[in-house]
Design a protein that fits this description.
Layout (H helix, E strand, L loop, with lengths): L1 H4 L5 H20 L5 H39 L3 H46 L2 H7 L4 H36 L7 H8 L5 H27 L9 H26 L2
Helix pairs in contact: 2-6, 3-4, 3-6, 4-6, 4-8, 4-9, 6-8, 8-9
Length: 256
């Protein structure tokens, strides 16, 4: 049966089909012959941005507020916070706090949606219909959703910097009420170009690995039934969460 072939979608095969599909998109755009796959990619990227932007800003704001308030209340005085903690806070947020917030959001939003979409389409044999219509399932189903994660996560990270900064600034209003301009200068004083590049690399790598984990679990496994979609999605989320922890540990050991 056609659906049996989806059981052999290894990570390597999925990675190959991703780059094949990406090359086809570039070729179609250069030749100015966009297809339904390009339209689907644009739609998925916009949908991911609309769906995650409010929650990303709220989450990074809360992370910034909570972290700054926690540090401030643990130090002996506000002056110590201003002179010692605040000049290093931006770098800590950039490398650890904001990537963790965005990674959790990618898992919750991206992995769950991508895995459940593919698994549900397998269960309802929609993937078979796509193949009959001469669309490769990985190109039409996986590629647009994976691109949405890979493009959306770094964009959310950049916006999340401002959300975390505003949260930290609001937390400081309970004590020494700093002006926003000087506070911003101190906040970003510890963010070097190396830290910025490393943080973007961490977020981009996390999003890519999350996408392929979700795609693998969506396509792989036993013959999909409607009642097994939830279990497959749960397995993907657990694996993605472990992968996030591993990635952060390895990057912290070898690159920080």
């Amino acid at each position: 049966m056609l659906c049996e072939r989806y059981n052999r979608y290894s990570v390597t095969a999925l990675l190959w089909q991703f780059f094949v599909g990406l090359a086809m998109i570039v070729r179609n755009l250069v030749m100015r012959r966009p297809t339904i796959i390009e339209s689907e990619c644009v739609g998925r990227v916009l949908a991911f941005a609309r769906g995650t932007l409010p929650s990303a800003l709220l989450m990074t704001f809360l992370y910034g507020f909570g972290f700054a308030y926690f540090v401030m209340t643990r130090l002996p005085s506000v002056q110590v916070f201003r002179n010692l903690a605040l000049p290093h806070m931006g770098g800590v947020f950039f490398l650890y706090v904001i990537p963790a917030a965005i990674a959790n959001l990618v898992v919750i939003r991206g992995v769950v949606t991508l895995t459940s979409d593919i698994a549900s389409m397998r269960a309802s044999q929609e993937l078979d219909a796509l193949e009959v219509a001469r669309f490769h399932p990985a190109h039409f189903v996986f590629l647009p959703r994976a691109l949405a994660l890979m493009i959306g996560a770094p964009a959310l990270f950049v916006l999340g910097v401002f959300g975390a900064f505003f949260g930290a600034w609001c937390a400081c209003q309970f004590t020494f009420r700093p002006p926003i301009g000087p506070f911003w200068e101190q906040f970003i004083s510890s963010i070097s170009s190396w830290k910025g590049s490393l943080a973007l690399f961490k977020v981009s790598l996390t999003a890519a690995i999350m996408a392929f984990i979700a795609g693998y679990f969506g396509f792989e496994g036993s013959i999909m039934r409607a009642e097994t979609v939830g279990k497959t999605t749960t397995d993907a989320v657990v694996t993605a969460t472990l992968a996030i922890t591993t990635i952060n540990i390895l990057i912290g050991l070898f690159l920080d």
